[in-house]
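#struct-help
A.M.: can someone run this one for me? Single chain, 297 residues.
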Amino acid sequence: MTLAPRILILGANGQLGTELQRSFADAGEVIARARETVDLSHPDQLRAVVRQTAPQLILNAAAYTAVDRAESEPDLARAINAHAPAVLAEEALRANALFFHYSTDYVFDGSKTTPWLETDAPHPLNIYGQTKLEGEQAIQQIGGRAFVFRTSWVYGPHGKNFLLTMLRLGSDRKQLRVVDDQIGSPTSSIQLAEATRRVADRILSGVTPAESAGVYHMTCSGSTSWCGFARAIFQQAERVLHMPAPEVIPIPTTEFPTPARRPAYSVLDCEELFQNFGVRLAPWQSALEDAIARLVL
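D.P.: on it. Structure tokens below:
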């Protein structure tokens, strides 16, 4: 492996892709491709980009993430979340490149009350989770130096996410009703990108063998409900952004029906990530504080 590998980042303009560009800026030659320059629903286009750039490391931060809309657009969700990762895995195998892909806690049905392990059987409740699972399975079947990182409730200073939605809604409403019976681990795109860099550094330097390829859970530590997350957002926003906090009223999922079902409990156990790479992400509360602080930089 060269000391300065060529790194291809897909989904460059998204919340994670933006942070990956920052985290990997000094890691090698970074080639970032956004949706406008490569359409993941077109396999030939995707193959061409990989072959033209000839990367040693592929970071796939692109995904179809509109969970509710996926219920009415299953073919498009499947093209981007399942077929595109398969193409990337094939191209990575052909070139002996390292391949990092991100999946989701929504591959699980939420029936457990303790954190989900990588070895637990997936059972997605919605099209989004199903297509992400199909992407995972395709990557594993193809093999090679491919790593799948399951994460959850991703948010950050860029893109479209719960943090920015809450800040927007809270700026002109005195009261918000937020679901309180779905539990997960909010994970900042900043933490996710920095953890990805640490994992990549260990593999590229030979500290951790690429034979450790597989599925790993990668989230911030701790857990909360969407309501708890919202309250924490406004608490920090009041302190850092001097924004008056609206009243956040907890409601059950039954009072906020959506086209796609969500798991009630989707906290992921990240011990395997630590055991294999020595990497732990920050507690979700401190990661949130950091993300909000960056909004004023």
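A.M.: thanks! The chain has a mean pLDDT of 94.
D.P.: also worth noting: The chain is about 40% helix and 15% strand.
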